[in-house]
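Example record used in the benchmark description.
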Amino acid sequence: MVAVISILLIVVLLSGSLYAFIFGKAHQRSYFSYEIFYTLLAVYLTVLTSFACLYFVLSFQGVLLLDDGKLKELPAFETLAHSFYFSGVTLMTVGYGDITPVGWGRLLALIEALIGYILPPAFFLKIWQGKGERDVY
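Model output (structure tokens):
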């Protein structure tokens, strides 16, 4: 019961925070841009999918993702699922360590993590830059 109430409270607070961020008029103008936000989401999904496909295709060429430190023969669909999971975790965080790349996969993971770290600051810089341009006119 406590868990359900906690989850509902978290969802309400998260929803309220997002609503205030997007529609709030704390300033005279809102600097939130749907265009930039949707572009950021599209870029994240494109990068995530592209790297997942790279991991998946390279898994047939010997670049492997180790599951819990063990080499396992997995069906193609499960390998694809592992590739998407690993790509998402690498892009959004530094990883959990349950799936580990081997060989060239490590370099790909580093590049993907770097892209994941660069995208949010680029998003905020674009908003900040747009704010300055609107103030000039």
